[in-house]
Each structure stands twice: as C-alpha cells, then as structure tokens.
C-alpha cells in the first residue's frame, strides 16, 4: 500500500509550486509523475491510461477498468484521491473538472500528447469554459530529483538484488556460452530472487562487442581472454537499480588490466569529488581528465552519469552539458568507460545518493577486476 505520509509531502511540494506559479489546477498524465504523487506501486505500465487533476484542496484520478481495482487496493480506503473509472474520454473528464472547480489557470504537462491537449481545449470550448493553459516544463521531474527516505530504501533493496546477481553470474560464466545465454541466466536470477521487473534490457557484451557502450547481447560465443561488459539492474516496486561490471575470462593481458585500472581510477576519483552543490559537468569533466591524462581521451565519449529513480534515466546528470548544481538527495550513477574498437571495452558503474557527506553508493559489488576461471 502507498506510503501516505511520503505521498502527502510530495503532493505538498507540488502544490507549493502551483502557488508560486499562480496555477489554480494542474492536469498530469505522465506515469512516472503519477506514481510519485500517488504511491500506487506496480500499477502503471507503458500505456498512458490515467489522468490526474490537482487543485489546492482536491486530488482526482481518472483511470479505466483494467487498473481501477489495483488502484483501489494500492491507495487504500483513506486515500485523499477521488478515483473513478467512468467510461469517458480523458479530455472530456479533465474539462469537466475545470468546470466543476471553476479553475481559470490550469497547467498542463508538456509531456502530454498533442492529441489529448487539442481534445481538452475542444472540450473546454464545447462547454463554454475559459481557462489559461500554461505548460509545466518538466517541473515534477525536477521535484523528483531529491529522493525521500522511502525512495532511497526501495533503490537500496533493488541494488541488493543486483549485487547478488553479479555474484551468481560470475559463477555461471564460462567459455562456450553465448552472450544471450548469460543474459537469460542473469535476468532469470534477478526475477527469481526478489526483483519484480528489470530496470532495462541487460547489456552483455563480450570481447570486441564491449567496445560498443550499448551493445545488445547476441550469439557471440564467450572465449578465454574476453573482457565482458555487463550493464543491468533489478526493478523493485517501480524503482530501479543500475550497475555495470566488467570481468575477464581467464587472466587479463597487461593492456586489459591497465585500461581497467584507468577506468577504476576515474570512477573512484569522481565518486570522491561528488557532493551536494557540485556542478554536474564539472564531475563529468573530471572523469574526462583522468582518462585523457592516461592517453585514452578519444575512447570515452558518453556522459559520466545520470539520475535514477522511477525512470532509469532521469535528472540530474553528470554530463558535459549539465551546468546545474547537484542537490543533496539526488540518486545518480557514476560510470566512466574506455572503449577500444575491435578489441574490448571496460565500464565500471555504481549508483547511489548524494548525501551531505558526499556520494554514498548503494552498490556493494567489488571494484577489483574479477577474473573468471577457465
């Protein structure tokens, strides 16, 4: 059941924003935002099937029969949300809430599709209802940056499953298996040991495939001497974990070990520097400097890290373009890598919370290079 106290604080934060902006009401349809505000875990899927209408003293939520019973169960009897499953269009439903509450400034998420927005305006016009419709420009996504205790605990738990999966898969990998077989074993282990979803499609990239940061696992057979990049995560109650480890099948070459050591140094240098108030791009550039000083600057091109929560990629970021400070309570990854085309790749990723005292990783798996016995 939803954590009523935590959700009440989230709604209060959003209502404070509404007051600052002069909004009478807001219409929300983004599933991650609705999950954050309602606390209805394991209810949302990929469909945009729900519409919320929020005022200073009212919370309404429209859904359909596929989800209604689950919402009732998740929200509980004492929920402040007025829930319905009326068989009407979301646009008509939202326009009726505007009319009933006499709202005149109604903010609309800029993530909503144009078809809904146009239909909503048409429904308002049909009922002779006048309102201004300013955009919310990712404002709830910004509020979601600072995680509360419930969110952090859910992600810690998701990561504990992910760490256990790493230990398991290191005992499973052997020459002759395909990347896809390793992926199947890894994902099945997580789902059989506490995960209720996967954070994303797992990356298992052996040998030369590891030089492609987002390589998809295939029929490539694992051989002795391969470096294997494994990027994966467990989902738990809609929250995500995200971890990358690179292992070696057999003993690494001098080059492989050197590249691994450079990536590890970049990771640990950035983790030590990450604290509340740092500029996201500064931490990214620190990783670039460490890797460039070692002679591999041309082989690290992606961002150093991204926020994690209800979405696997959310704000804030450690990237060259993120010029904002990172607030305390942010949950973010640190994942430098070096990718040598035609040879191998190495990435080392933890994720954790930016606490007052600095970066506190949820990840517990070792930073030492794990060598799989042949």
Highlighted features:
6-stranded mixed β-sheet; Creatine Amidinohydrolase; elongated; alpha+beta; 10 helices; Creatine Amidinohydrolase, Chain A, domain 1; 374 residues; 2 domains
Describe this structure in words.
By secondary structure, the protein is an alpha+beta fold. The protein has two domains: 4-143, Creatine Amidinohydrolase, Chain A, domain 1; 149-372, Creatinase/methionine aminopeptidase superfamily (Creatine Amidinohydrolase), CATH 3.90.230. The chain contains ten helices and 20 strands. It has helices at 4-21, 31-38, 65-75, 90-101, 114-126, 139-143, 149-172, 179-192, 254-273, 280-293, and strands at residues 25-28, 51-55, 59-62, 81-84, 106-109, 135-136, 197-198, 203-206, 227-232, 234-236, 239-240, 243-249, 305-307, 314-318, 331-334, 337-340, 344-347, 350-355, 358-361, 371-372. Strands 4-3-2-1-5-6 form a six-stranded mixed beta sheet, sandwiched between helices. Strands 8-9-12-20 form a four-stranded mixed beta sheet, with helices on one face. β2 (51-55) and β3 (59-62) form a beta hairpin. α4 (90-101) crosses α5 (114-126). The longest helix has 24 residues, at 149-172. It is elongated and about 75 Å long. 45% of the residues are buried. The mean pLDDT is 97.
């Amino acid at each position: 059941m939803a954590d009523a106290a935590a959700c009440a604080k989230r709604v209060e934060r959003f209502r404070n924003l509404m007051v600052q902006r002069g909004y009478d009401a807001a219409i929300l349809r983004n599933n991650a935002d609705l999950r954050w505000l309602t606390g209805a875990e394991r209810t949302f899927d990929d469909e945009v099937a729900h519409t919320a209408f929020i005022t200073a003293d009212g919370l309404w939520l429209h859904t359909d029969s596929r989800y209604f019973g689950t919402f009732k169960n998740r929200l509980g009897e004492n929920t402040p949300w007025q829930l319905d499953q009326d068989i009407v269009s979301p646009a008509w439903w939202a326009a009726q809430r505007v009319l009933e509450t006499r709202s005149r400034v109604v903010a609309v998420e800029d993530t909503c599709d144009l078809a809904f927005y146009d239909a909503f305006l048409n429904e308002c016009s049909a009922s002779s209802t006048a309102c201004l419709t300013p955009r919310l420009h990712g404002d709830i996504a910004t509020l979601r940056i600072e995680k509360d205790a419930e969110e952090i605990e859910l992600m810690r738990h998701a990561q504990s499953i992910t760490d256990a999966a790493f230990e398991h898969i290191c005992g499973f990998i052997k020459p002759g298996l395909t990347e896809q077989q390793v992926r199947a074993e890894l994902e099945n282990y997580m789902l059989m040991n506490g995960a209720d979803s996967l954070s994303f499609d797992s990356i298992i990239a052996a040998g030369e495939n590891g030089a492609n940061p987002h390589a998809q696992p295939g029929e490539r057979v694992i051989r002795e001497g391969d470096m294997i990049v494994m990027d994966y995560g467990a989902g738990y109650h809609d929250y995500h974990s995200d971890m990358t480890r690179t292992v070696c099948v057999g003993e690494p070459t001098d080059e492989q070990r050197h590249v691994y050591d450079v990536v590890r140094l970049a990771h640990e240098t950035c983790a030590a520097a990450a604290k509340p108030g740092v500029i996201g791009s500064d931490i990214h550039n620190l990783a670039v400097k460490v890797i460039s000083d070692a002679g591999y600057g041309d082989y690290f091109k992606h961002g150093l890290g991204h926020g994690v929560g209800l979405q696997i990629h959310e704000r804030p970021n450690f990237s060259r373009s993120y010029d904002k400070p990172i607030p305390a309570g942010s949950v973010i990854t640190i994942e430098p890598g070096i990718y040598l085309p035609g040879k191998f790749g190495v990435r080392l990723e933890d994720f954790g919370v930016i606490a007052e005292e600095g970066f506190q990783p949820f990840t517990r798996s070792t930073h030492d290079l794990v060598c799989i016995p042949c």
